[in-house]
UniProtKB/TrEMBL annotation:
<dbReference type="InterPro" id="IPR003439">
    <property type="entry name" value="ABC_transporter-like_ATP-bd"/>
</dbReference>
<dbReference type="Pfam" id="PF00005">
    <property type="entry name" value="ABC_tran"/>
</dbReference>
<keyword id="KW-0813">Transport</keyword>
<comment type="function">
    <text>Part of the ABC transporter complex HmuTUV involved in hemin import. Responsible for energy coupling to the transport system.</text>
</comment>
<keyword id="KW-0547">Nucleotide-binding</keyword>
<dbReference type="InterPro" id="IPR027417">
    <property type="entry name" value="P-loop_NTPase"/>
</dbReference>
<dbReference type="InterPro" id="IPR003593">
    <property type="entry name" value="AAA+_ATPase"/>
</dbReference>
<keyword id="KW-0067">ATP-binding</keyword>
<dbReference type="InterPro" id="IPR017871">
    <property type="entry name" value="ABC_transporter-like_CS"/>
</dbReference>
<dbReference type="GO" id="GO:0005524">
    <property type="term" value="F:ATP binding"/>
</dbReference>
<protein>
    <submittedName>
        <fullName>ABC transporter ATP-binding protein</fullName>
    </submittedName>
</protein>
<comment type="similarity">
    <text>Belongs to the ABC transporter superfamily.</text>
</comment>
<keyword id="KW-1278">Translocase</keyword>
<feature type="domain" description="ABC transporter">
    <location>
        <begin position="4"/>
        <end position="239"/>
    </location>
</feature>
Amino acid sequence: MSFLTAADLAFGYRGAPVGRDVTLSVARGEVLALLGPNGCGKTTLFKTLLGLLPPRGGRLLLEGREVAAFTRAEFARRVAYVPQAHGATFPFRVREMVLMGRASRIDTFATPSAIDRQAADAAMETLGIAHLADRLFPEVSGGERQMALIARALAQEPAMLVMDEPTASLDFGNQARVLERIADLSRSGLAIVLSTHDPGHAFACAHRVALMKGGRVLATGSPQEVVTAEALRGLYGVEVAIAYMQGAGRHVCVPTLTRNEKERDS
Ligand SMILES: Nc1ncnc2c1ncn2[C@@H]1O[C@H](COP(=O)(O)OP(=O)(O)OP(=O)(O)O)[C@@H](O)[C@H]1O
């Protein structure tokens, strides 16, 4: 049963349409990855899924109800957004940042309760960052910040996460750790929609992939079905090699660089 459904969705900005005819759905326990070149409309689509931009056409349903019919607090108790971790200016402690995820569950003039603090602590524990609680958010590393932003979203106790390039600007180790957490979170029953620029990450954590170009979804299906060399050539204009890697237990995808092709063929 689908948790979020977009049907023939058109989206964009006032006077600047970005995409249309987008039909997508994500169920609880499922990870849907959006793959597409820079500027194809992923972030604009996310803003629309999050109710921050009104749909320009089509339908957008959360638990079978129009997203526009939810109050912001009702929506935030169901769906949490994980932005990219760059740029951190406010000198909050990591614990305070994570506690902000409770905003939709705290009355306007009330202070966080013991339950709110426990939820924030539990979220930091889940993400393995409890030891960072008293550090200043702008002073922890990019990977730690990304984990703190995911913890903030989890403290919200949502049923769904929308994650904008959750592995962008992370080192090799932190990318792997974030991908593992995403897989764990979907196993725990969350619906997850994420965007990524690495097709290999779709094989690593997604159940379904949507290929986007020019504001349209070109194909949707399992990673094995839709992440093909031909499809990636069409999306990005580069040649790639895709192969099952025994030791990793999944497919991997690498661009075949002209220099390597010459060496291979010589
Ligand atoms: N506030 C805005 N007003 C008008 N057009 C915008 C606005 N923000 C983005 N756009 C345009 O919408 C289109 C899609 O941008 P969007 O940021 O959604 O792409 P994206 O797929 O997320 O790109 P990237 O992978 O580079 O993050 C682009 O042509 C962009 O210039």
